[in-house]
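Work Package 3 (structural annotation) set out to generate three-dimensional models for the target panel prioritized at the project kickoff. During this period the team completed the workflow that converts sequence records into discrete structure tokens, so that structures can be stored uniformly alongside our sequence database. As a representative example, we reproduce one entry of 210 residues exactly as it appears in the project archive.
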Amino acid sequence: NVDSDPDNALNYLTLAQTLYQQGDIDNARSAVSRGQEKSDNKIRYLITATSIADTENDISGAVVYGILLWEITKDDLSNEGQLANNNISEYLYNKSNIISRFDLSQSNNDNLRGVLGTDAQSIAESNITHILIVNNNIENGHAGIARVAIRNWDDETHNLPIGQLVNAKYEILTDNIEIGRNQLNILVETSTTPAWIVKIAQDLLNELEG
């Protein structure tokens, strides 16, 4: 189908899924990358690519597709863009541990670009990547590393609801309990906070009370 209809992006996703099932991860990722260039709707394409990679247990690939999806939807005010950004934010938050497996060095740029159609720098510079790095270190109790990473956040990262959640977790980890509690309460009481973040914030508040 790719050979007979090379401009149909969905054919590349079908090919990628087949290659994943054959254990050919690199060529599956390459197919996703080639199809992305053909896609007229990058949001839907990356949603599907993330889902396929996750289902076929290429979680690193899924996270990269998710970061790319997050980047193209972060300023998208359409209903489709906002829904996609909210859903992928939750997915990435729950996969924060994967970020430690990434080789984001300059020397790995060509490898990432070859199989994912992107490079290490574009992934490393994303706001959501910065948040995932901090959250991963918090979950592993690495307060010192989290401290260094969080100092590199810009104002935009700090102001994101997911950024506020992770920052509150950092404050609690470093025994600034009241600061963390106040940040969590603000998230819970703000009407625009995504429901999944409200739930996590409320659970954390309940743990503090317990």
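The radius of gyration is 18 Å.
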